[in-house]
Amino acid sequence: MAPHTWVVTVDSDGRPLLPVACTLGAIDGAQRLEEWRRLSAAAGLGRQMTDGKLTLRFRDAAGVREELDRLVSAERECCAFLGWELAQSGAEWHVHITGSPDELRALTFAD
After folding, report:
1. pTM for this entry
2. Hey, is 110 helix, strand or coil?
3. Residue with more model confidence, 1 or 23
4. What pLDDT does 99 receive?
5. Do 41 and 88 meet the contact criterion of CB atoms below 8 Å apart?
6. C-alpha distances in angstroms, 62 versus 6, 43, 51, 65?
7. Taking CA 36 as the corner, what is the angle to CA 52 and CA 68, rounded to the nearest 5 degrees?
8. Which of 67, 74, 96, 103 could covalently link to 85 via disulfide, CB atoms 3.0 to 4.6 Å apart?
C-alpha cells in the first residue's frame, strides 16, 4: 500500500489552514501535520471514514505506540473539539477521531 499523506486546506497564498477551534498557529500546525505524515509513511496501514469517525490504522512496530501516544496527547490539547482515542486491535494501533464531518475533513488522509 502506498504511503498516506495529510490533505491540508490552504489559503490563496498556499498557507495551511487549520480548523478555527485549533489552538495551533499555521507554523506549529504544519509541523504537527508533518509529524503525522512521517509516522504514516513509516507505519501507516490506511484509514477509514464513517459517519462522525475517522480511524487511522498503524502497524504495531517498535516506537509506534510511543509516537502515537505523544501525537494523540498533543492533539487532545490543541484540538479538544475532536474526540481522540488510541486503541490496539491485534497487530495494529488505531487512532479513532470523532467530530463533525467538516471537522474530520480537515484531517483526512489521501492516498
Report:
1. 0.74
2. strand
3. 23
4. 87
5. no
6. 23, 10, 32, 8
7. 80
8. 96
Judging by beta carbons within 10 Å of its beta carbon (0-12, 13-18, 19+), is residue 16 exposed, middle or buried?
A: middle
Over residues 8-33, the pLDDT tens digits come to 455 566 665 554 456 766 777 788 78
Q: How far is CA 22 from CA 3, 53, 85, 87, 90, in A?
A: 26, 18, 18, 23, 32
Residue-by-residue DSSP string for 21-61: T----HHHHHHHHHHHHHHHHHHEEEEEEETTEEEEEEE--
Q: What would the CATH number be for the domain defined by 5-110?
A: 3.10.28
Query: What are the cell numbers at 65?
Result: 505506540
The one-letter amino acid code at 100 reads S
54 - beta bridge partners? 49, 97
